[in-house]
Each structure stands twice: as structure tokens, then as C-alpha cells.
Specification:
This protein is α/β, with parallel strands linked by helices and 165 residues long. It contains 8 helices and 6 strands, in the order H-H-E-H-E-H-E-H-E-H-E-H-E-H. The chain has a single domain, classed as TIM Barrel (Alpha-Beta Barrel). It has a 6-stranded parallel β-sheet with strand order 1-2-3-4-5-6. The longest helix has 13 residues. The termini are far apart.
Length: 165
């Protein structure tokens, strides 16, 4: 969607987000349109936020094309487990070799063994669509490095429980 269309849903432009909140937080942005990564990276760099920016894309080539422009922004390969087929260890090795910081899979794909596999290649394990408390707990127990949840209050409560236990 274009920025004007997103505004109708109350979604601010990235520049407006940085203006309102500053840059002292990690920000993950899904690259949904070809060529948009360079513009997002340039804006983040302009605002001094590049080191805390995580650019996510399902197409690994899109991410690797950005690597030449980057200094310390993080790349995240967002995909589905089935898209990796039987070559998951080879993929983990490739991400590590290409300096892709993380892989982001649907929470149902993760096991502690799979997390350990990616960690072996210095690739962080992210989980998306983690909405229910039992799923949040399972991901934390599996050693997930980051997760995406639409229910912030629930997520904060479960993470608090997990850290205090």
C-alpha cells in the first residue's frame, strides 16, 4: 500500500514514526515492494537509526542486494519452513556465510533443535504470528531470539513470567 492508503488505517510514515518516537528502539520492517529497502535504509541512516533497523524479506536475493549498501543494519530472511525443503542446514549455513542476521519462520515450524541449528551458524531465530500465551511460552522455552506478536500486553506478561521463573 502507498503511504496515503496506510494513513487511512492510522499507520504513520516511517519518517513520522521517527519524528514522534525518536530512534531508541529496535524496528523491524517487512520489505513488501521491490526497491523500497534502499529508501528505508537511507531514511534510517539519516535519522541515526540504521543500527537498530531489521529489514525482513521473503526473497533472499532482495536482502542480499541490499547488503552492499549496508553498514550495520540487520537482514532477516522471513519465509516458511516448507519453502526451505530438505536443505535447511544448507540454508542455515548460507545465511551465516552471507551475514544474514536472522531467519523468521512461523512459530509452528520452530523446535529447540531447529533453533540450535541456526544458532550454530550464528543466525538468530525469530518467530512470527505468536499470538497465544501457550505459543509464546513454547517459543521462549525453545530459545527463540525474537518474536512477533500483535497482543503486546499478553506478550509482555508472558515474557515477564518466563524471566521470573
Amino acid at each position: 500500500m502507498r503511504a496515503v492508503e496506510l494513513a487511512e488505517w492510522g499507520v504513520p510514515r516511517l519518517a513520522d514514526l521517527y519524528d514522534a518516537l525518536g530512534v531508541d528502539y529496535e524496528l523491524s520492517v517487512d520489505l513488501k515492494v521491490p526497491g523500497v529497502g534502499s529508501k528505508i535504509l537511507a531514511l534510517a541512516r539519516d535519522r541515526g537509526a540504521a543500527a537498530r533497523l531489521w529489514l525482513c524479506a521473503p526473497d533472499l536475493a532482495t536482502l542480499l542486494d541490499l547488503r552492499g549498501e549496508m553498514t550495520d543494519t540487520h537482514l532477516v530472511h522471513s519465509t516458511r519452513r516448507r519453502a526451505l525443503g530438505d536443505g535447511i542446514e544448507r540454508h542455515a549455513a548460507e545465511l551465516g556465510r552471507e551475514r544474514v542476521a536472522a531467519i523468521n519462520l512461523h512459530h509452528t515450524a520452530w523446535t529447540s533443535g531447529l533453533v540450535a541449528l541456526f544458532h550454530r551458524f550464528d543466525v538468530a531465530a525469530f518467530a512470527w504470528d505468536v499470538q497465544e500465551a501457550r505459543h509464546l511460552r513454547a517459543m521462549l522455552a525453545a530459545g527463540i531470539d525474537a518474536l512477533y506478536c500483535d497482543r503486546v500486553e499478553r506478550m509482555v506478561a508472558v515474557v515477564g513470567e518466563f524471566e521470573s521463573s
